[in-house]
Each structure stands twice: as C-alpha cells, then as structure tokens.
Amino acid sequence: MPRPFFLVITRRYLWAALVLLGCLIVLAIYSSFPLAVYTLNALPTKIIYDVMLDPGHGGIDPGGIGRDDIYEKEFTLDIALRMRDILEQAGLRVGTTRDTDRDVSHLAKEGTRHRRDLLGRFSLMNQAQVGMSIHTNATRSKDERGAIVFYMQNSYIDKIYAQIAFDELERVQEMNHSAPVPRNNLFLLKAKPPVILVEIGFITNEEDLQKLLDEGFRQNVAEALSTAILKFVMQQPIEQSEI
Predict the structure, then answer these.
(1) Contact 191/131 with Cβ under 8 angstroms?
(2) Does a structural domain hold residue 214?
(3) What is the distance between the alpha carbons of residues 84 and 24, in angstroms, rounded to a whole number?
(4) Are residues 129 and 170 in the same domain?
(5) CB 144 within 8 A of CB 137
(6) 22 and 100 fall within a common domain
(7) Does residue 180 share a domain with residue 79?
(8) Pairwise CA distance, residues 136 & 76, whole Å
(9) How many domains does the chain divide into?
C-alpha cells in the first residue's frame, strides 16, 4: 500500500530542513559571527540557569595585562565566583562559563581558538534567563580609568539592565562614562537573554589596578553587580509585559 502523500512531503521537508541547518552551522563557523548568531539563536536551547556569569578570558588567553604580568583573567574569575556565591545564597540557579583558569574553546569544534571560545560562551549564555560578562579594560593610555557597562544597541530590556548595573557599580567604583554604552559589535551581547558586558576598570591604570588587587574592592564589586542582577531579575517580567 503506498504511503500517504502528506507523509512523503513531510519527511522530505524534514530532511531538507536538517540539511539546511547543518549548512548554516558550517557556514557560521567558517564565515562570519553574524551568521553564527542567527544559527545558534535558532537552535532550541533548554534554560538551565537563572543567571550565567562569564569571567572573561582564561587559560592560554590572559586578557589584559597590567604591570608585573598581572592578568585580567584572574580578576574576572575571582569576581565571578564571588558573585556566584552571593546569587546562589539568594536562591538563584547560577552558571559560569568557567570556574577555573581555562577558556571554553573545547565547546566548539571548528574555527580558531578565539572563535571557538566565543561560540562556546555564546552557547552557554543561551542556557540562562540573564547573562553578564565580566572584564577589565586595557589601553595604551595609562590615564584611562573607571568602569564601563556595555549593552546591546536598540534593546529596551538590555538598556534597563545596563542602567541598573551602572547605578549599582557607581556606588563602589568610578565610572569611565556618564551612562551605559550601547554597542552592536560585541558578540556575547547578541545572545538570546538580556546580556551586558561590564569592564570593572583599567588594568593598565595604576589607580584601578590597586583597586583590583584589593580583595575588599573585588568583594564590593561582586556585591554591587549581584544586587543589580537581583533587581533586574525581579523587574524583568514587569518590563517585558509593557513592551
């Protein structure tokens, strides 16, 4: 007995969709990050965490380097782990893209190490309701200092999230800008959930570096950013309902 026509069509379309998805993934890995964004965001992702914290860099990638070979990756991990403790005590499910001195390039199979690392962090961000990437800045000018909060340009929700983080961080650290900074070229900001990227300070500035070396300062930063996340998580459903 011949199969019903609609079953044949359905199976053909299913195989075509799978082939197309595979092609998109390959193209995303080998060509451009914008395509990678569309592809990874199109994949179904199970939400596991309330918050995903991303300590920038790690492993072979030290991030910014201050005097005496002081590495950004050490500060970002320390602050993120402090935040994890605070947020878990508040009852949130918290994930971290790394919890040791390593990168996450092992989570993607193709491309340069840097690209695999970013794709891995991006995929992990999509497993949470809210994300935050934590960094320190570096520049040739030793006079540049202060914290910066970046958010996805033209995103209403992300702007609110960034402003909350800005206000809390300003209580414990000098800010480099007078307001959060919109960007459209930072890869992690394009993940599905609201994500902001926070530069705690300039590792190349002596004043900021001395702060970062102070355990009490890092704890204050962790508490400020954790408070921002808690405030945003409570406020987020209200804001989304008004869009």
Answers:
(1) yes
(2) yes
(3) 35
(4) yes
(5) yes
(6) no
(7) yes
(8) 7
(9) 2
pLDDT value of position 46: 86
For tokens 């340009």, the residue is 153
Contact call for residues 116 and 105 (beta carbons, < 8 A): yes
- 168-194: per-residue pLDDT in tens? 999 999 999 999 999 999 999 999 999
Model pTM?
Answer: 0.82
What residues of the chain score a pLDDT lower than 50?
4-9, 24, 26-32, 38, 241-243
How many residues does this entry show for the chain? 243
Residues 6+ apart with CB under 8 A from 45: 123, 126, 127, 192
Exposure of 94 in the CB half-sphere (CA atoms within 13 A) = 24
What is the Cα–Cα distance from 41 to 185, expressed in whole angstroms?
Answer: 16
- The reply to whether 17 and 108 lie within a common domain is no
Confidence at residue 170, expressed as pLDDT on a 0 to 100 scale: 98
* Residue 85 domain boundaries: 46-241
- The answer to whether residues 18 and 82 belong to one domain is no
Query: What stretch of H or E contains 159?
Result: helix 156-169
Q: Residue 50 domain-assigned?
A: yes
